[in-house]
Amino acid sequence: MDGNGRWAEQRGLPRTEGHTAGEQALFEVLDGADQLGVRWFTVYAFSTENWRRPVDEVQFLLRFNEEILLNRQEELHERNIRIRFIGRQDRRVPRRLVRRMTEAAELTQDNTGLTFTIAFNYGGRAELVDAVQRIVDSGVKRVSEKTIASHLYDPEMPDPDLVIRTSGEY
Questions:
Q1: 4-122 falls under which CATH superfamily?
Q2: What does pTM read for this prediction?
Q3: Which of 2, 111, 130, 154 is catalytic?
């Protein structure tokens, strides 16, 4: 979901319009992935770095993500899509948004179609730090790739086959 704000600015639109267009594009791609039989689909909805944005944009993104869940979770459930979340659920994430995430995950937990993972307050390095901290806290003496994998946010999630950076940055 990276690049929505820049996309809007390039067209003389408010950054919020870019996020709305990004939502539409996301669900079009999700539909296509589902039709093609893709089993796991992950989207970066809000990174750990997004907290550095202007406060009003952060507040918009928090509300926007909550609204997406409210508006889309029933539809996704009816389509047998399982919703999961990865990322830190620390004190910066509003409790009502955490509740919405929990509700969506619980509603769809038994679905057997595509697994739609939403990376919210997520960063790859943050996930590794959190995994290592859980390993240290558990008292494990010898660490292997398997040990680290079992302590990631979603140990069931397979390694990605394809990563697309939508902003055009690399």
A1: Decaprenyl diphosphate synthase-like (3.40.1180.10)
A2: 0.89
A3: 2
